[in-house]
Amino acid sequence: MSTPAKRNTWQREAVREALGHNDGFVSAQALHAVLREGGSPIGLATVYRALADLATADEADSLQSPDGENLFRACTSSGHHHHLICRSCGLTVEIEAHAVEAWAQDVAAEHGFTAAQHVVDVFGLCAACTKLAAH
Amino acid sequence: MSTPAKRNTWQREAVREALGHNDGFVSAQALHAVLREGGSPIGLATVYRALADLATADEADSLQSPDGENLFRACTSSGHHHHLICRSCGLTVEIEAHAVEAWAQDVAAEHGFTAAQHVVDVFGLCAACTKLAAH
DNA sequence: ACTCATATTGACAATCATTATCAATAAGCC
DNA sequence: GGCTTATTGATAATGATTGTCAATATGAGT
Ligand SMILES: [Zn+2]
Ligand SMILES: [Zn+2]
Ligand SMILES: [Zn+2]
Ligand SMILES: [Zn+2]
Q1: Contacts from A30-38 at CB under 8 Å and sequence distance 24+?
Q2: Which residues bind Fe cation (chains A, B) (predicted)?
Q3: Domains of chain B and any CATH numbers
């Protein structure tokens, strides 16, 4: 019952590359659409599976958008960080938040909570999308 | 196109009360089940609508669980705030985070983002659950 | 209390992201 | 080249949420 052997398929690699060519967070559906438009016959379920694998292998970051979608992004920095995300085009900026890290620790400790984790994401409209939205 | 007048129905009040009788975050489905078990013939769609209204009226807090469900909770303190939640028993503490509010605004503005929103939640083990977990 | 214009309800259908099926395929190993 | 079995992908299934719309109830006006 050891770890089931992983195999290398062009599908996995295609998803990895497609993620890498994208700056922001993308949904599985969107990534699948991009791949198909690029001529790949890859299946939707496979994209979902590949993204889930990449996320558990810490090769991709994942978060849920305000409307419940699961979004993925190629992992650039390996350390702990947070994101500023355009909810229109997906443009993402990695942000440091030392003050927030400390605050989270403190507030948890103050109330006797242990093993504290936190979810901190900022969503907005990037400069470009803000202009577009202004007709 | 002024604001459409709101009417008071026993359904709205039932949802409000059911929320108040619950300490932690609950899903619309769960709250509907509780109400029906209590003898109320309220409809599921109505519970969804009532909860959405309460949330927009800042009478209830909402957040999405790690698996994508929308959860609601009666609001004890008024105004914008965040939550410290025990991931074992659901105990919830409302927390102020003025520093985080300012940080979120600044970081968004610094990168030219507008209409910034943020998701900030702290999950951990409360004091009681920490003791239990210590065998 | 009666009327009326309309906000609200609720059973049900529709949507939408995600997951489960499962036969067909292909990766890695001999 | 064969064998084992992880992987794929078309499709069905799931499950939470939202839309539909006729029937109902609310609140203001009389
Ligand atoms: Zn944008
Ligand atoms: Zn952090
Ligand atoms: Zn607890
Ligand atoms: Zn805040």
Answers
A1: A31/A72
A2: 80, 101, 118
A3: 1-79 (1.10.10.10), 81-135 (3.30.1490.190)
